[in-house]
Protein backbone atom coordinates (compact mmCIF):
# COMPACT_ATOMS: atom_id res chain seq x y z
CA UNK A 1 0.00 0.00 0.00
CA UNK A 2 1.40 3.35 -1.07
CA UNK A 3 -0.12 6.52 0.39
CA UNK A 4 0.31 10.20 -0.46
CA UNK A 5 -1.31 13.02 1.50
CA UNK A 6 -1.77 16.77 1.10
CA UNK A 7 -3.51 19.74 2.70
CA UNK A 8 -5.07 22.60 0.74
CA UNK A 9 -5.69 25.93 2.47
CA UNK A 10 -7.83 28.55 0.76
CA UNK A 11 -6.66 29.37 -2.75
CA UNK A 12 -3.21 27.89 -2.23
CA UNK A 13 -2.25 25.10 -4.66
CA UNK A 14 -2.12 21.53 -3.41
CA UNK A 15 1.39 20.48 -2.44
CA UNK A 16 1.85 16.73 -1.97
CA UNK A 17 3.71 15.82 1.23
CA UNK A 18 5.43 12.79 -0.27
CA UNK A 19 4.98 12.96 -4.05
CA UNK A 20 5.31 9.90 -6.19
CA UNK A 21 3.35 8.41 -9.08
CA UNK A 22 0.54 6.15 -7.93
CA UNK A 23 -1.20 3.64 -10.17
CA UNK A 24 -4.99 4.14 -10.29
CA UNK A 25 -5.16 5.37 -6.69
CA UNK A 26 -8.23 5.89 -4.56
CA UNK A 27 -8.14 9.63 -3.85
CA UNK A 28 -10.19 10.66 -0.82
CA UNK A 29 -10.86 14.40 -0.65
CA UNK A 30 -12.48 15.62 2.56
CA UNK A 31 -12.99 19.34 2.99
CA UNK A 32 -14.88 22.46 3.90
CA UNK A 33 -18.06 22.87 1.87
CA UNK A 34 -17.14 26.34 0.56
CA UNK A 35 -13.84 25.01 -0.81
CA UNK A 36 -15.49 21.98 -2.40
CA UNK A 37 -17.95 24.30 -4.16
CA UNK A 38 -15.02 25.65 -6.19
CA UNK A 39 -15.32 24.11 -9.67
CA UNK A 40 -11.55 24.37 -10.12
CA UNK A 41 -10.77 21.94 -7.28
CA UNK A 42 -11.72 18.80 -9.20
CA UNK A 43 -9.56 19.78 -12.17
CA UNK A 44 -6.62 20.55 -9.88
CA UNK A 45 -6.82 17.11 -8.27
CA UNK A 46 -7.43 15.36 -11.59
CA UNK A 47 -4.23 16.94 -12.93
CA UNK A 48 -2.30 15.48 -9.97
CA UNK A 49 -3.88 12.04 -10.32
CA UNK A 50 -4.92 11.43 -13.96
CA UNK A 51 -5.74 7.77 -13.21
CA UNK A 52 -7.29 8.41 -9.81
CA UNK A 53 -10.67 7.36 -8.47
CA UNK A 54 -11.51 10.68 -6.85
CA UNK A 55 -14.13 10.71 -4.07
CA UNK A 56 -15.23 13.99 -2.44
CA UNK A 57 -17.10 14.64 0.80
CA UNK A 58 -17.83 17.82 2.76
CA UNK A 59 -17.00 17.94 6.44
CA UNK A 60 -17.50 19.58 9.80
CA UNK A 61 -13.73 19.46 10.30
CA UNK A 62 -10.90 17.62 8.58
CA UNK A 63 -8.62 14.96 10.12
CA UNK A 64 -5.08 14.28 8.95
CA UNK A 65 -2.52 12.48 11.11
CA UNK A 66 -3.33 13.66 14.67
CA UNK A 67 -4.46 17.11 13.51
CA UNK A 68 -8.01 18.46 13.31
CA UNK A 69 -8.34 21.29 10.79
CA UNK A 70 -11.09 23.70 9.78
CA UNK A 71 -11.65 25.47 6.48
CA UNK A 72 -9.24 23.23 4.57
CA UNK A 73 -9.19 20.27 2.21
CA UNK A 74 -7.28 17.11 3.14
CA UNK A 75 -6.34 14.69 0.40
CA UNK A 76 -5.29 11.06 0.84
CA UNK A 77 -4.34 9.04 -2.25
CA UNK A 78 -3.94 5.28 -1.79
CA UNK A 79 -2.52 2.76 -4.23
CA UNK A 80 -3.49 -0.78 -3.28
CA UNK A 81 -0.70 -3.03 -4.50
CA UNK A 82 -2.39 -6.41 -3.95
CA UNK A 83 -6.07 -5.47 -3.96
CA UNK A 84 -8.70 -3.86 -6.15
CA UNK A 85 -11.34 -1.21 -5.59
CA UNK A 86 -14.64 -0.42 -7.28
CA UNK A 87 -16.52 2.85 -6.78
CA UNK A 88 -20.24 3.42 -7.47
CA UNK A 89 -22.64 6.27 -6.75
CA UNK A 90 -26.35 7.11 -6.56
CA UNK A 91 -28.34 10.28 -5.88
CA UNK A 92 -31.29 10.62 -3.52
CA UNK A 93 -33.35 12.61 -6.03
CA UNK A 94 -33.40 9.61 -8.40
CA UNK A 95 -35.11 7.51 -5.71
CA UNK A 96 -37.65 10.05 -4.42
CA UNK A 97 -35.93 9.84 -1.04
CA UNK A 98 -36.56 6.09 -0.74
CA UNK A 99 -33.22 5.60 0.99
CA UNK A 100 -33.65 1.85 1.55
CA UNK A 101 -34.20 1.28 -2.18
CA UNK A 102 -31.23 3.50 -2.97
CA UNK A 103 -29.04 1.47 -0.62
CA UNK A 104 -30.17 -1.82 -2.17
CA UNK A 105 -29.52 -0.59 -5.72
CA UNK A 106 -26.15 0.83 -4.72
CA UNK A 107 -25.06 -2.48 -3.18
CA UNK A 108 -26.35 -4.41 -6.20
CA UNK A 109 -23.76 -2.67 -8.40
CA UNK A 110 -20.93 -4.51 -6.61
CA UNK A 111 -19.98 -8.08 -7.55
CA UNK A 112 -20.08 -9.99 -4.27
CA UNK A 113 -17.30 -12.48 -5.07
CA UNK A 114 -14.40 -11.64 -2.75
CA UNK A 115 -15.95 -8.33 -1.66
CA UNK A 116 -14.38 -7.61 1.71
CA UNK A 117 -15.83 -4.23 2.63
CA UNK A 118 -17.96 -1.30 1.51
CA UNK A 119 -17.02 2.17 2.72
CA UNK A 120 -19.80 4.71 2.23
CA UNK A 121 -19.55 8.50 2.02
CA UNK A 122 -23.09 9.85 1.99
CA UNK A 123 -24.76 13.21 1.74
CA UNK A 124 -25.76 14.20 5.26
CA UNK A 125 -28.52 16.80 4.94
CA UNK A 126 -31.61 14.72 4.17
CA UNK A 127 -30.67 11.03 4.10
CA UNK A 128 -32.10 8.53 6.59
CA UNK A 129 -28.88 6.71 7.41
CA UNK A 130 -30.68 3.77 9.03
CA UNK A 131 -32.74 3.10 5.90
CA UNK A 132 -29.68 3.47 3.69
CA UNK A 133 -27.78 0.86 5.72
CA UNK A 134 -30.79 -1.47 5.76
CA UNK A 135 -30.94 -1.33 1.97
CA UNK A 136 -27.22 -1.95 1.51
CA UNK A 137 -27.26 -4.93 3.87
CA UNK A 138 -30.56 -6.35 2.58
CA UNK A 139 -28.94 -9.10 0.49
CA UNK A 140 -25.62 -9.31 2.30
CA UNK A 141 -25.22 -13.08 2.04
CA UNK A 142 -21.43 -12.75 1.73
CA UNK A 143 -21.06 -10.92 5.05
CA UNK A 144 -18.93 -8.11 3.70
CA UNK A 145 -18.07 -5.34 6.14
CA UNK A 146 -19.77 -1.95 6.02
CA UNK A 147 -18.70 1.38 7.49
CA UNK A 148 -18.54 5.07 6.58
CA UNK A 149 -20.28 8.30 7.42
CA UNK A 150 -22.57 11.17 6.51
CA UNK A 151 -20.97 14.32 5.15
CA UNK A 152 -20.98 17.47 7.25
CA UNK A 153 -21.29 21.22 6.77
CA UNK A 154 -19.57 22.54 9.91
CA UNK A 155 -22.40 23.43 12.32
CA UNK A 156 -24.43 25.25 9.65
CA UNK A 157 -26.69 22.35 8.57
CA UNK A 158 -27.27 24.08 5.23
CA UNK A 159 -26.18 21.52 2.61
CA UNK A 160 -23.67 18.75 2.15
CA UNK A 161 -21.84 17.65 -0.99
CA UNK A 162 -20.21 14.47 -2.27
CA UNK A 163 -19.19 13.01 -5.64
CA UNK A 164 -17.15 10.48 -7.57
CA UNK A 165 -14.96 11.66 -10.45
CA UNK A 166 -16.86 14.94 -10.87
CA UNK A 167 -17.47 18.23 -9.09
CA UNK A 168 -19.15 17.71 -5.69
CA UNK A 169 -22.94 18.08 -5.64
CA UNK A 170 -25.95 17.64 -3.38
CA UNK A 171 -27.69 14.35 -2.78
CA UNK A 172 -24.78 12.07 -3.74
CA UNK A 173 -24.04 8.79 -1.98
CA UNK A 174 -20.76 7.12 -2.91
CA UNK A 175 -19.72 3.57 -2.02
CA UNK A 176 -16.19 2.16 -2.34
CA UNK A 177 -15.86 -1.60 -2.61
CA UNK A 178 -12.62 -3.29 -1.52
CA UNK A 179 -11.60 -6.65 -3.00
CA UNK A 180 -8.61 -8.86 -2.27
CA UNK A 181 -7.48 -12.00 -0.44
CA UNK A 182 -4.74 -10.18 1.44
CA UNK A 183 -6.91 -7.30 2.62
CA UNK A 184 -7.60 -7.01 6.32
CA UNK A 185 -10.24 -4.43 7.20
CA UNK A 186 -11.70 -3.89 10.65
CA UNK A 187 -14.09 -1.24 11.94
CA UNK A 188 -15.57 -0.21 15.27
CA UNK A 189 -17.14 2.72 17.09
CA UNK A 190 -17.66 4.01 20.60
CA UNK A 191 -19.25 7.09 22.11
CA UNK A 192 -18.60 8.10 25.69
CA UNK A 193 -21.95 9.80 26.40
CA UNK A 194 -24.22 9.19 29.40
CA UNK A 195 -27.98 9.54 29.83
CA UNK A 196 -29.71 11.91 32.23
CA UNK A 197 -33.22 13.05 33.04
CA UNK A 198 -36.51 11.16 32.74
CA UNK A 199 -37.06 8.34 30.26
CA UNK A 200 -39.80 9.07 27.72
CA UNK A 201 -41.68 7.03 25.11
CA UNK A 202 -41.84 7.87 21.41
CA UNK A 203 -45.58 7.96 20.80
CA UNK A 204 -45.49 9.19 17.20
CA UNK A 205 -42.74 8.95 14.60
CA UNK A 206 -42.23 8.08 10.95
CA UNK A 207 -38.83 6.84 9.83
CA UNK A 208 -36.39 9.42 11.13
CA UNK A 209 -38.99 12.13 11.87
CA UNK A 210 -40.00 12.50 15.51
CA UNK A 211 -43.47 13.93 16.19
CA UNK A 212 -44.37 13.13 19.80
CA UNK A 213 -42.85 12.08 23.11
CA UNK A 214 -45.31 10.92 25.77
CA UNK A 215 -48.13 12.21 23.58
CA UNK A 216 -46.73 15.76 23.46
CA UNK A 217 -45.03 17.62 20.57
CA UNK A 218 -41.42 16.45 20.65
CA UNK A 219 -39.90 19.78 19.62
CA UNK A 220 -41.75 21.69 22.35
CA UNK A 221 -40.54 19.24 24.99
CA UNK A 222 -36.98 19.38 23.71
CA UNK A 223 -36.99 23.18 23.75
CA UNK A 224 -38.10 23.12 27.38
CA UNK A 225 -34.97 21.15 28.27
CA UNK A 226 -32.69 23.38 26.21
CA UNK A 227 -33.97 26.65 27.67
CA UNK A 228 -32.15 29.62 26.11
CA UNK A 229 -30.10 27.26 23.93
CA UNK A 230 -33.31 26.45 22.01
CA UNK A 231 -32.68 29.63 20.02
CA UNK A 232 -29.58 27.95 18.56
CA UNK A 233 -31.33 24.83 17.23
CA UNK A 234 -30.39 22.58 15.48
CA UNK A 235 -26.76 23.36 16.43
CA UNK A 236 -27.43 23.27 20.19
CA UNK A 237 -29.02 19.82 19.87
CA UNK A 238 -25.56 18.42 19.16
CA UNK A 239 -24.68 18.98 22.82
CA UNK A 240 -27.73 17.01 24.02
CA UNK A 241 -28.43 14.04 21.75
CA UNK A 242 -31.03 11.36 22.40
CA UNK A 243 -30.44 7.79 23.52
CA UNK A 244 -32.94 5.62 21.64
CA UNK A 245 -33.68 2.08 22.81
CA UNK A 246 -36.08 0.30 20.45
CA UNK A 247 -36.59 -2.80 22.62
CA UNK A 248 -35.68 -3.91 26.13
CA UNK A 249 -32.81 -6.06 24.85
CA UNK A 250 -31.54 -3.74 22.09
CA UNK A 251 -28.33 -1.75 22.29
CA UNK A 252 -29.25 1.95 22.67
CA UNK A 253 -28.44 4.09 19.63
CA UNK A 254 -27.49 7.75 19.86
CA UNK A 255 -29.44 10.12 17.63
CA UNK A 256 -28.85 13.80 16.94
CA UNK A 257 -31.17 16.27 15.28
CA UNK A 258 -30.25 17.40 11.77
CA UNK A 259 -33.31 19.56 11.11
CA UNK A 260 -36.38 21.01 12.84
CA UNK A 261 -39.82 22.04 11.57
CA UNK A 262 -41.22 24.87 13.66
CA UNK A 263 -44.62 24.74 11.93
CA UNK A 264 -45.20 21.01 12.51
CA UNK A 265 -43.21 21.00 15.77
CA UNK A 266 -41.15 17.99 14.58
CA UNK A 267 -37.51 17.02 14.61
CA UNK A 268 -35.65 15.15 11.86
CA UNK A 269 -32.91 12.89 13.16
CA UNK A 270 -30.02 11.24 11.30
CA UNK A 271 -31.54 7.74 11.62
CA UNK A 272 -34.70 5.85 12.49
CA UNK A 273 -36.52 6.45 15.79
CA UNK A 274 -39.24 3.75 15.98
CA UNK A 275 -42.51 4.33 17.82
CA UNK A 276 -42.51 2.71 21.25
CA UNK A 277 -38.79 3.32 21.74
CA UNK A 278 -37.59 4.66 25.07
CA UNK A 279 -35.52 7.82 24.86
CA UNK A 280 -33.41 9.90 27.21
CA UNK A 281 -31.28 12.99 26.83
CA UNK A 282 -27.50 12.52 26.85
CA UNK A 283 -24.48 14.61 27.74
CA UNK A 284 -20.71 14.19 27.84
CA UNK A 285 -17.41 15.76 28.88
CA UNK A 286 -14.06 16.26 27.19
CA UNK A 287 -12.47 13.43 29.15
CA UNK A 288 -15.34 11.04 28.47
CA UNK A 289 -15.15 11.72 24.73
CA UNK A 290 -11.38 11.24 24.66
CA UNK A 291 -11.72 7.98 26.59
CA UNK A 292 -14.44 6.89 24.18
CA UNK A 293 -12.11 7.42 21.22
CA UNK A 294 -9.44 5.32 22.92
CA UNK A 295 -11.94 2.52 23.49
CA UNK A 296 -13.15 2.70 19.87
CA UNK A 297 -9.56 2.20 18.71
CA UNK A 298 -9.14 -0.76 21.06
CA UNK A 299 -12.26 -2.38 19.62
CA UNK A 300 -11.06 -1.83 16.03
CA UNK A 301 -7.67 -3.39 16.84
CA UNK A 302 -9.12 -6.48 18.52
CA UNK A 303 -8.18 -9.73 16.76
CA UNK A 304 -6.31 -8.01 13.93
CA UNK A 305 -3.54 -10.12 12.39
CA UNK A 306 -1.59 -7.24 10.84
CA UNK A 307 -0.83 -3.71 11.95
CA UNK A 308 -3.05 -1.19 10.13
CA UNK A 309 -1.43 0.81 7.33
CA UNK A 310 -4.35 3.22 6.90
CA UNK A 311 -7.00 4.46 9.34
CA UNK A 312 -10.10 6.33 8.21
CA UNK A 313 -11.61 8.16 11.16
CA UNK A 314 -15.14 9.56 11.17
CA UNK A 315 -16.18 11.39 14.32
CA UNK A 316 -19.32 13.38 15.05
CA UNK A 317 -19.52 17.16 14.87
CA UNK A 318 -21.21 17.08 18.30
CA UNK A 319 -18.05 15.64 19.85
CA UNK A 320 -16.06 18.44 18.25
CA UNK A 321 -18.36 21.09 19.73
CA UNK A 322 -17.91 19.64 23.22
CA UNK A 323 -14.13 19.19 22.84
CA UNK A 324 -13.63 22.66 21.31
CA UNK A 325 -9.93 23.57 21.54
CA UNK A 326 -9.11 20.09 22.85
CA UNK A 327 -10.62 18.25 19.86
CA UNK A 328 -7.27 16.83 18.76
CA UNK A 329 -7.05 14.89 22.02
CA UNK A 330 -9.46 12.25 20.74
CA UNK A 331 -7.33 11.76 17.62
CA UNK A 332 -4.23 11.49 19.80
CA UNK A 333 -5.98 8.81 21.88
CA UNK A 334 -6.69 6.83 18.71
CA UNK A 335 -3.11 7.17 17.51
CA UNK A 336 -1.81 5.92 20.86
CA UNK A 337 -3.64 2.65 20.22
CA UNK A 338 -3.17 2.07 16.47
CA UNK A 339 0.48 3.20 16.36
CA UNK A 340 2.56 5.98 14.81
CA UNK A 341 3.15 4.12 11.53
CA UNK A 342 -0.54 4.15 10.55
CA UNK A 343 -1.55 6.89 8.09
CA UNK A 344 -4.62 8.70 9.42
CA UNK A 345 -7.28 10.59 7.48
CA UNK A 346 -10.95 11.37 8.03
CA UNK A 347 -13.52 13.99 8.91
CA UNK A 348 -16.15 15.19 11.37
CA UNK A 349 -19.61 14.17 10.25
CA UNK A 350 -23.38 14.30 10.70
CA UNK A 351 -23.51 10.53 11.34
CA UNK A 352 -21.26 7.48 11.52
CA UNK A 353 -21.72 3.95 10.11
CA UNK A 354 -20.17 0.96 11.87
CA UNK A 355 -21.13 -2.23 13.69
CA UNK A 356 -21.24 -2.48 17.45
CA UNK A 357 -18.21 -4.28 18.93
CA UNK A 358 -18.40 -8.02 18.32
CA UNK A 359 -21.32 -7.71 15.87
CA UNK A 360 -21.49 -7.94 12.08
CA UNK A 361 -24.53 -5.80 11.31
CA UNK A 362 -23.79 -2.12 10.66
CA UNK A 363 -25.73 0.64 12.43
CA UNK A 364 -26.11 4.39 11.99
CA UNK A 365 -24.63 6.20 14.99
CA UNK A 366 -24.30 9.75 16.19
CA UNK A 367 -21.79 11.16 18.66
CA UNK A 368 -19.30 8.31 18.17
CA UNK A 369 -15.72 7.92 17.03
CA UNK A 370 -15.68 5.40 14.17
CA UNK A 371 -12.53 3.77 12.80
CA UNK A 372 -12.00 1.70 9.66
CA UNK A 373 -8.51 0.14 9.59
CA UNK A 374 -6.86 -1.21 6.42
CA UNK A 375 -3.82 -3.37 5.70
CA UNK A 376 -2.76 -5.54 2.76
TrEMBL record:
Keywords: Kinase, Transferase. Residues 218-356 form the FIST C-domain domain. GO terms for molecular function: kinase activity. Residues 24-217 form the FIST domain. Signal peptide: none annotated. Pfam families: FIST, FIST_C. InterPro entries: FIST_C, FIST_domain_N. This is Histidine kinase. It comes from Maribacter litoralis.
